[in-house]
Design brief:
Strand order of the largest sheet: 1-2-4
Shape: elongated
Radius of gyration: 24 Å
Oligomer: single chain
Number of helices: 2
Amino acid sequence: MRPARGQQLRLGVAVLLLPLVVLVVASLATLATSQPSRVALVTTEKQLADALVDATIGTAQLTGNLRLQGLGWPPGLITRTSNFTIKGNESFPILDLSFLVGGPSRL
């Protein structure tokens, strides 16, 4: 017994829409778990280092000029699996990285 034409049409639409629904749900789940949304207000080098280490923070907002001196950072490498943005406020603070010295990469 063949299904009625209306049932065939509904079945065809369901078959076509199912992959799209799965893709949207998977994308939303990935977006929810991989996009840190917290913003850390940063005034010191230690606060910047702490924000970088914390995977739930996606943005560090500098509240004023900040000169890094190599202090307050955890020993060893910092591993991060999501994007991290450093931004200023309306006054465009300066992030001074002049203490950094180039050397061979350990990656």
